[in-house]
Design goal:
The protein contains five helices and ten strands. It starts with a strand and ends with a strand. By secondary structure, the protein is α+β, with helices and mostly antiparallel strands. The chain has a five-stranded mixed beta sheet with strand order 6-5-4-8-9. It has a three-stranded antiparallel beta sheet with strand order 1-10-7, covered by helices on one side. A two-stranded antiparallel sheet has the order 2-3. Helix 2 (about 50-65) packs parallel to helix 5. It has helices at about 30, 50-65, 85-95, 110-115, 150-165; strands at about 1-5, 20, 25-30, 40, 70-75, 105, 120, 120-125, 130-135, 175.
Length: about 180
């Protein structure tokens, strides 16, 4: 089912969480909330929208991370029903697309629900104080690779890093619904 994300609730405080990656390493959100902010993405392996943007996502997040903006990805789908989203497949998907950010398993779906994540991909851009400043899309290319795309997520996170505030105009992300239990 195709869904759009809600508009940005500027200033909403990010709930802290600790999740494991598929290898069992623990990651705590508050430890990644750096002085230039934090991007939290809800993604999965089987969604055609995530697959379509995976290469651009890898490229854009590498740029953000090189600029000191931290990135975490969370997979909240019920992988007992959708085996393509299993931790083993998360490792393969991340390697296949060159993801360099931590890709975390939301085993009980608690984090996805706390954040009000609705689809994959769903992007949450926070400033250094953990206040939501971006809830938009990756870019204006949608499902196509476009060399002339506007990298809206990169631009927003760079603005947040520089000023602590996100852009007032944001276009909702769209994608597949999160597969809840």
């Amino acid at each position: 089912m195709l869904l759009d994300t809600p508009i940005c609730d500027f200033g909403w405080k990010a709930p802290d969480f600790t999740l494991k990656n598929p290898n069992g390493d623990m990651f705590t959100m508050s430890k990644h909330l750096g002085e230039k902010g934090l991007l939290i993405m809800f993604i999965c392996n089987h969604c055609p929208y995530v697959k379509a943007i995976a290469a651009r996502l890898a490229e854009d997040t590498k740029l953000l991370m090189s600029e000191g903006i931290n990135v975490l990805a969370v997979m909240s789908n019920d992988y007992q029903v959708f085996d393509a989203d299993s931790p083993a497949n998360m490792l393969r998907f991340a390697e296949q697309h060159g993801f360099t950010f931590p890709y975390l398993v939301d085993e009980n779906q608690h984090v996805g629900k706390q954040y009000g994540a609705v689809c994959t991909p769903d992007f949450f851009g926070f400033n250094a104080q953990g206040e939501l400043q971006y809830r938009g899309r990756l870019d204006d290319a949608r499902l196509q690779d476009d060399p002339n795309r506007v990298p809206e997520l990169v631009n927003a996170m760079q603005l947040i890093a520089a000023t602590g505030k996100g852009p007032k105009q944001q276009t909702a992300s769209m994608g597949c619904s999160i597969k809840w239990r």
